[in-house]
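hi! just following up on the protien thing from before. the input was this:
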Amino acid sequence: MPNVRLEENKQTVLAFYQAAINDKDHDAASKLLDHHYVQHNPRIADGLEGFREFVETLKADFPHLRAEVKRIFAEGDHVIAHVHGVRVPGGPETAIVDIFRLEEGRIAEHWDVMQQVPDEARNQNGMF
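and the predicted 3d structure came back as:
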């Protein structure tokens, strides 16, 4: 796969974060999803309708939620992002690793792993 495609895939994922998470704009974000979108997070229903429900829940329950992509990698048809998430300003922070599989420039599958950022750490390295 040419490097151009890898960069395009990364840009698609970055646009998805902005639309889906930061803007909570289902219509804009859904244009970046494949019509056979597969969700592997067990707390989110599968498919495009599950995605719509997820965005509506974010909008209602966490209107100020923000996600900041700290690192992003692409290989083949996968994009991996290391993300700093804050649901409520001043509240607990979350370290997230999202994995996306793209088909023809659209997000076809999503996996994630999340860990709350502790108040105290045994080292000074930080999670980001």
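The chain has one domain: 3-116.
The radius of gyration is 15 Å.
cheers
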